[in-house]
Amino acid sequence: MVSSLQSAPAPTRQADPPDLFRVAVEQFELAADILGLEDSMRQILTHCQREITVNFPVEMDDGSVQVFTGHRVQHNNGPGPTKGGIRYHQNVTLSEVKALAMLMTWKCAVVGLPYGGAKGGVTVNPKMLSQNELQNLTRRYVSDISPFIGPNQDIPAPDMNTNAQTMAWIMDTYSMNAGYSVPGVVTGKPLTLGGSEGRAEATGSGVVFAIEEAARAIGLNLEGATAAVQGFGNVGSVAALEMAKRGSKVVGISDWKGGVYNPAGLDVAALKEHTEATGSVTDFPGTDAISNDELLELPCDILIPAAIECQIHAGNAPRIQATIVAEGANGPTMPEADEILFDRGILVLPDIFCNAGGVTVSYFEWVQSLQWFPWSLEEVNSRLQQIMQKSFAAIYATAGEHQINMRTAALVKAIDRVADFTRLRGIFP
Ligand code: NAD
């Protein structure tokens, strides 16, 4: 027994299974090569500063006790407090949480927020738990990580299978321990508890602000332009509605069940009502049924993948007809497809920039919570637009300068910014 313990390898970064974190590091190295980043900086930025794992008991409704495992990873706090969502999913692993924390650092840096990246997760199938059990789990997980979170330290937000109610429980748990209300400890809160106007729509709105800039850069008039949207949830539905508001013709929309197509343009608001009533976009009157694969290859100016990852791959990339691909979803384009789209002159607005509207308005929510001073929807949207405009210009210029695609350019900008913070602050002691 003792000898097997003695021969066990020391837990190092390499001990993770072949994994998402390694993929994130590989992406980092590509951009670091372009920047000519020094080895010491590469070492610092490819490690997460804090990796917290907690195993905690939860009393279930039937009186039994179950122990769950959760993580909170803070990748880098050079630019400011760390920020990132908390997800509940049965497949959550430390490696996944580390990769997502690192990506949050780059996403915040791309749009110039004063945050580093973090992520949290609990390995649980939330569909197997009652509301009461979910509340118990949330409060205990947050209690266990509470020494490491806080409005000046690390600020969680919703992610997969967590929502405004989860954030309300986190805010309350943290506040109970502090002895006073601390709304700035989380974002994505219900409006009543200090949530921000425009937060729910922020990602979809940001996607369309990004598209506006891209269209201007390549001389495409959005009025009369055609768009196709994959996914009609939080991000896709807002993006489709906003495109229609700008006079674009949204010719195709799909969801998990299939898609609808009308070359003359869909009535997006009516389709939203149909979806709310029936649970899907399919069978919307006056449209042709199409598959998700067909939607991606529709003749259109702008394609907005806003559903799930890995949708554009080497197989379909040669047949994408859009001029702009705006990634509402996280990771919808595979690396090999990126190269094909770039060679074909298609402008891809990468996820770390294109869907950063959500974290940007989270930042606005945090500012409002710290100041106990809510902003109007107009103020939120106008500031979001300014940030998307400025970020687009910087990424587009970097892409042109190095003749690289927008994804690598965004990463180059982000890594350069975080490296700057690190150099200026120096190494303690
Ligand atoms: P959502 O659950 O509200 O909507 C997802 C949509 O995708 C639904 O219409 C669903 O039917 C559809 N869908 C699911 N599986 C599909 C499949 N196999 N094929 C086609 N469509 C499918 O989710 P959301 O919040 O809109 O998030 C969508 C994407 O955007 C995700 O990748 C998410 O990580 C990313 N994202 C969301 C936010 C945000 O603020 N909500 C922020 C950044 C990134």
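^ nicotinamide-adenine-dinucleotide complex. The radius of gyration is 22 Å. The first strand starts at residue 50 and ends at 59.
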